[in-house]
Amino acid sequence: MPKLMKEQEIAVAEDKEVATSKETLVEVTGLSKKFCKDLKTSLWYGVKDLIAGYSGNKKKRELRPKEFWAVKDISFTLKRGECLGLIGHNGAGKSTLLKILNGLINPDEGKVVMRGRVGALIELGAGFNPVLSGRENIYNNGAILGFTRKEIDEKLQHIIDFAELEEFIDMPVRNYSSGMKVRLGFAVAAQMEPDVLIIDEVLAVGDLGFVLKCFKTIDTILPNTAIIFVSHSMPMVSRICNQIILMDKGQAKFQGEDVSKAIDLYYTRFASNDVKILYTDNNIVLDYIHIKSHDFSDGLFQINWNDDIQIELKITSKLDKIPVPYITIFDKEQRPVAQLEPFDGIFESIDKRNLTYVFYVKNLQLSKGIYNMNLIVGKAYGKNPFLRINDVLSFQVKHNLDVWPPLLIKTKTTLAK
């Protein structure tokens, strides 16, 4: 009897090992892909590589003239229930990496292991035959994922209902709008319940109601799926991702589980203190604008949440009357979040040529993140401006909490007896 129990324990342990080994669905090791900037040169390099490969010379090659690394030495693993966010500017290598993962192009170096069924939504309309109807494309995509016709039959109505295309499901896909293609593509990719789901920026095409429905579906399927998600919308990335890679020129500039840190680095990468004059009638010159008594680093003034701040603005004016400056604050998504109360026009100083304005803000309660200011100098807001400048000043608010609403309001909370 003890011997039998010991054998059962060994069998259970082996089953656990199998389950653990199945847990990792995506393994990427040292992945690299290079491209050539010139088509003619690229074809010539391809012929040379083909001959070299045929002769058995497959040694690792360095970059040749006009070549560049679109993806360089990317490695990560992804388990069931995890979501990896890929962020970076346009041309950073995100889409190339997704195409390698989906098998559309081959890497020059490295290895990709994908386990289970893979659903991908990486290009608008990718995987659809434009001549076929939406219904026929559902069957085609399902077959590619390895589903039988009976299994697709069972899921068909759910897909059509989710995509909200009942009226147009038998129309050729080439006649679909971009939004309709996104609806159908995501419905197929999600409702087929793949083990690995790859989503590119295509969700940005959909309307807000559908995007919200997509994220509700992602929340539902994530525990049983590994998701790779590419987006320029940091609120979306922050909402669903528990791992992140910040890419720049094909390389991982930051990688790990600290999603908020990667997002801060992403915004810092695009923070600019360059003055962008949209309009001037040459009667007003901005001498400087800064936040007094606060550190300045990496092009940003550093502010702790709930600090008192003083924004000092100096202009040289050729006008007879005292102009009024208006400052609007924008968040990292370039949404206007606040307007400073305009100057009331009362001066103790009579020098109308050299004017210094100081805006006093007590207990700044903007939530953690990077912000910038736009400046208008005029008679009245939006009317007859003398000077308009975008991104005239950038600053970073620091706090230990990551929240996406623009305000983090200080409160005193107690439990009622």
TrEMBL record:
Q: Where is the ABC transporter domain?
A: 45-274
Q: Which organism is the protein's source?
A: Psychroflexus salinarum
Record carries keyword Ligase: no
- Provide the leader sequence positions: none
GO molecular function terms attached to this record: ATP binding
Q: Which family does it belong to?
A: Belongs to the ABC transporter superfamily.
Instruction: Read off the lineage from the record.
Output: Bacteria, Pseudomonadati, Bacteroidota, Flavobacteriia, Flavobacteriales
By its UniProt entry, which Pfam families does this protein fall under? ABC_tran (PF00005)
On whether Glycoprotein is a keyword of this UniProt record, the answer is no
Q: Which SUPFAM superfamilies match?
A: P-loop containing nucleoside triphosphate hydrolases
Question: Which keywords has UniProt assigned to this entry?
Answer: ATP-binding, Nucleotide-binding, Transport
InterPro entries xref list? AAA+_ATPase, ABC_transporter-like_ATP-bd, ABC_transporter-like_CS, ABC_transpr_TagH-like, Bact_Polysacc_Export_ATP-bd, P-loop_NTPase
Q: What is this protein called?
A: ABC transporter ATP-binding protein
